[in-house]
Design goal:
Structural class: alpha+beta
Number of helices: 7
Strand content: 15-25%
Strand order of the largest sheet: 6-3-4-5-2-1-7
Shape: globular
Number of domains: 2
Helix content: 40-55%
Oligomer: single chain
Number of strands: 7
CATH architecture of the largest domain: 2-Layer Sandwich
Radius of gyration: 18 Å
CATH topology of the largest domain: Beta Polymerase, domain 2
């Protein structure tokens, strides 16, 4: 039985709508972008929703066509991420999210993972630097286990940084964004420095 071309066409249409929402409205969450795009497209059938990889591909295409300034904006975000990572080098920072993958827009948040014995050491470091921060929790899967990870967020040059605090043992563990979700890609300080140098 062949594929339904109407369904494939709708799936592609939703992917491009979601990509535009992410590029123009600064939406970072794929699930939110998909839901809004499906609503715009009048597609209540969730089986027609594209996966994150399809939206990422559409987002790269959209930026190449309509946002020629994107490479410079991305480089500036990565340079700023590298600066903050250098300041927190003792906590083995790793960059994750759209700034690493290359899909981040001008006003994207920067997501870092820090690996620490005690969360308090990072809070003390922030206080010593005079950095005001707020706290929240992120729901991740470490291996097959769901966990709530503390996150400290602050502003730097109009960019929001989110520091997810993990244990040193979790540097060697695959961390997923949710049950059945993708493994979160991450890059250490040296890898980010290379990305910046090559851009």
């Amino acid at each position: 039985m062949g594929r339904d071309p109407t369904r494939n066409s709708m799936r592609e249409h939703i992917a491009h709508l979601a990509a535009r929402l992410m590029a123009e409205d600064g939406i970072e969450d794929f699930a939110t972008a998909k839901r809004k795009a499906a609503k715009q497209a009048g597609a209540p059938d969730t089986r027609q929703l594209p996966d994150n990889e399809e939206i990422e591909a559409a987002l790269r295409t959209y930026r190449a066509l309509y946002q020629q300034q994107h490479p410079e904006e991305l480089r500036n975000l990565r340079k700023l991420a590298l600066e903050v990572m250098s300041e927190f080098a003792s906590f083995h920072p790793h960059l994750t999210g759209p700034v690493l993958s290359g899909t981040a827009g001008q006003f994207a948040d920067v997501h870092l993972q820090l690996f620490v014995e005690s969360d308090k050491t990072v809070e003390i470091e922030l206080l010593n630097r005079g950095i005001q921060y707020r706290t929240s929790l992120s729901h991740l899967h470490i291996g097959e286990m769901p966990v709530e990870v503390p996150v400290l967020s602050f502003e730097r040059e109009d960019v929001t940084f989110h520091l997810a605090l993990l244990s040193p043992l979790e540097r060697r563990t695959r961390i997923r964004s949710g049950r059945g979700g993708r493994v979160i890609e991450r890059a250490d300080l040296d890898a980010v420095a290379t990305l910046v140098a090559l851009s």
